[in-house]
Each structure stands twice: as structure tokens, then as C-alpha cells.
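Technical note accompanying the year-one report. For the benefit of new consortium partners, we illustrate the data format agreed upon in the data management plan: each record pairs a sequence with a C-alpha cell string. No post-processing was applied to the example shown here.
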Amino acid sequence: MNTIGMSRFKTATIENFTSDTGIKLRRGVNFLFRAVLRHSTKEKVVVDRYPRLEKKEPYIFVSVHGFVNDSVAALSTIDRNAYLLFGTTDTLEHNPIIYAAWANGFIYVNRKEETSRHTAIDKMERVLSSGSSVLIFAEGGFNNTENLLCMKLFSSPYLLAKRTGRKVVPVAPFYEFGSKYIYVNVGGPIDLASYDSKEEALSFLRNALGSLVFENIEKHSTPLRREELSQTPRLDFMRQRCQEYQKTSWTKDVWEEELTQYLDKKDREKNAVEESMDDIIITKENAAIMGPILVKRAEDHKYDFKQYMHENWNKRGEKQT
């Protein structure tokens, strides 16, 4: 189906993506909306910790991003209206859940377009200046890494904090595959605007988010002994992540957009070097050096999550490769 009236948000300007009346109205009815959200998932949302926040102050809430219902869990936990920064085009165009996002208040961003990302920051600044909060998943796409507690962050939390002087509140929803519960751990406000260095500020925020995630893992994850793992634990991990994505109602392959993540200069240079290796021809002279490197690269290709999702995302009920 097509979501009538929602596509306009792809080109909505700073002035018309929402109204001043809409911002105030959403603040007024937020307690009712949160009550609805708390009953909208199969899993029960449990709040482990929530800081004391100033009642009428807007905040920049920044959440880790790891499972399909984490935005619902975060919005139902936050004690005030927070416009959601939203970046999945297929959901905007085809999924009725976008009407719930509209009722809450959302800002669409095309994560692949620099202009759209800059405009989204301006829109969030307007919301904050109007007295409401915003919720950002600053990792971009879901964290599908096996080891990182929190991926590198896009710069919007720092830029907004600098522009508005508003404090940043870290949020960490946690869900273990197959569990009946979603746990939410919220840290105290952080004054990112006090940092002169964007890199230092985002590093501090990332560490705060990672610490909350680690606390979640210690408290709520089920321990496994090594002998309980299969012979292909990395593939098992990818299968579970794929099953989590299969809960969505996306109508097409969205992975070039959905798996967006921040890459700094070193990341981009590293990727360029690795991609250049595909053109290397093994000779007697370079075999001793390049052979092991290319074998490792071939092994990594087997666990390319984006490629895996291209091949398996729509195989609901079928055996994944």
C-alpha cells in the first residue's frame, strides 16, 4: 500500500514539516501517546533507570540503534514529546506505522543526501527552539557489528548542542533475541556544548552510550559457554539479525540506505585500500605477503552483512543461506 500524504515529508521545508500548533499539541497529549506506545509491542518495555530531568526543558535524546522496536521503546520511555529523526524511505512511502510517527512528530532525513542531512539539523533546531525535544539514532543504521557496543556517531548531536545549548541525554534500549522484554537504560544529561572539539564530544557521548549498553548486557543477557556455540557463530549471529529485520514490512531491498553508518577519513581510506586489493594478481614475488592478506579478505567477504541481507532479507519462513 501507499501511505497517503506522507511522501510530502521528503521535500518538506523547515517552515512546513510541522506547525507551531502541532508542536504544542503533541507536547500536550504526549502522556496519552506514550501509554499507547507501551502496549504496541509484543515485548514488555521495562525502564531500568531514568535520570531526573528539568520538567519544561527540551533535550537532545540520543539512542543506540539495534532492533526493530527500539524507537517505540525509547519514545514510550522518554518523559516528554520528542520529535523522531527518521530515515527509512520505504517506511515513509508504504508502512502505515508512519502515521504513528506523524502523531508523535517526526523529521524525515535522506541519509544518503548531504543536503537532506543538513536540513534535518535545521528542522531539529526549530523543534528544540519551540520547547520540544528530539530523538536521534546517531549511529545511522542498526548496529549489526558483533563486537562494538556503539558504532561511530554522526555529528548531529554535537552540532545541535552547540547551536541551541541544550543538553544531550543518552538512551540505550536493549533486546535479546527471543526475549519477552525490552529494557531501557537512560543516562544523565551531558553538556556537549562545553566541548570545543567535535571529535572529543562525540567520543565522550559514544563512551556514555557504550557504558549503558554494557550495563544492559551484564544485567539482562543470557550467558553462553563456548561449547554451546555452533561451528559457525558468526553466521548464526547474521541469521538472528536477519530474523530481526524480517519483522518489518519493507516492500523492497532497503539495505544500501538502512545500513548507513558514519565513516571518518581513516575508515574511507581503509576501505579504499581493501577494495583496491580485488585487482591484485598473485605472483611468485608477492605471494608470501599478499597470499595471507587475500585469504583473510575472502573470509571477510563471507560475512559481509550487507550482501547477506541483499540475499536473505525477504526469505520469511525459508532457510537462509
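Partners are asked to follow this layout when depositing records. The first strand starts at residue 44 and ends at 49.
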